[in-house]
Write a structure and sequence with these properties.
284 residues; mainly beta; 4 helices
């Protein structure tokens, strides 16, 4: 099926006369969400697209017919094509190309001093565990299952941000990967709630993130909640927006009580606050 879709994307066909796709966020920073929106009254029966070598489908949501695009934090600045194939009642694919401008955002630097064993573990058994868990997470985030389950997103906790997404990290004087999520200054025991509908695809203990829950929101969109003191859900459960996920804690590699919230869209690492800005429950 994907090979057929790729062939559609390579075809040269005239535009639909009624095509009114727009990039609602024509300029975004790397590490942010972009929103593609249908503007016309009558729409194609199906729209499939390609962005950064990832296939996506347009979805019906509270915001209308949209597609969410993830711009990974490592994406270089520049102009990027969004290739669309609109399929109408005649079942003839029609090609359309839009453009997204990506800019680089300076997100600052975070310097931390941690016990050496937390930064650079050396025990063979521990290194093997970390490798297994990395493979597991890679497999989970690579899955693109079904339609978008999520409606508009809300915050998982009501507390203020403590550490923002994308900060370059220097641990014990050594440069590391940018901060992969948003940290909230939440007290221990604070109830963490699902920000949107989703299926629990992981609930367990990981070396770096401690007690962790991962929700699959469909269409390649995942959210991760780390350092929990208690898990209140299990794999296979479908959560509605607002249902409990767990309680805030400081498990795993953590220096104090807080909630770490990560979002990935088709494997791209995305700022959760960007998701709230463009796909949040407070959008009019």
């Amino acid at each position: 099926m994907k090979r057929l879709l790729i062939l559609f994307l390579l075809c040269s066909s005239p535009y639909f006369a009624y095509a009114e796709w727009i990039v609602a966020t024509p300029t975004v920073n790397n590490g942010e969400l972009a929103l593609l929106r249908w503007q016309g009254e009558s729409r194609p029966d199906m729209t499939v697209g390609s962005f950064n070598q990832k296939i996506f489908y347009a979805e019906m949501t509270t915001l209308g017919t949209v597609a969410l695009l993830g711009v990974d934090i490592e994406t270089e600045p520049g102009q990027y094509p969004i290739q669309l194939v609109n399929v109408g009642k005649d079942r003839v694919p029609q090609l359309e190309t839009l453009w997204l401008e990506v800019k680089e955002k300076d997100r600052g630097v975070s310097r931390l001093t941690l016990p050496p064993e937390m930064v650079t573990p050396k025990e063979p058994e521990l290194l093997a565990r970390i490798a297994r868990e990395r493979r597991l997470l890679t497999h989970i985030f690579a899955e693109d299952k079904g339609v978008l389950l999520a409606d508009l997103f809300s915050r998982p906790v009501p507390d203020p941000l403590n550490s923002s997404f994308g900060k370059k990290r220097v641990l014990n004087g050594l440069p590391r990967a940018p901060h992969s999520g948003a940290d909230f200054r939440s007290p221990s025991g604070r109830l963490v709630r699902a920000p949107a509908h989703g299926n629990v695809v992981f609930a367990g203990d990981l070396y770096y993130t401690g007690n962790t829950v991962i929700l699959d929101h469909g269409a390649g969109l995942y959210s991760l909640y780390a350092h929990l003191s208690q898990l209140l859900c299990s794999v296979g459960k479908r959560l509605s927006q607002g249902e409990p996920i767990g309680k805030v804690g400081s498990t795993g590699r953590s220096t104090g009580s807080h909630l770490h919230w990560t979002i990935r869209l088709r494997e791209a690492l995305i700022d959760p606050i960007s998701v709230l800005d463009h796909f949040g429950s407070k959008i009019p």
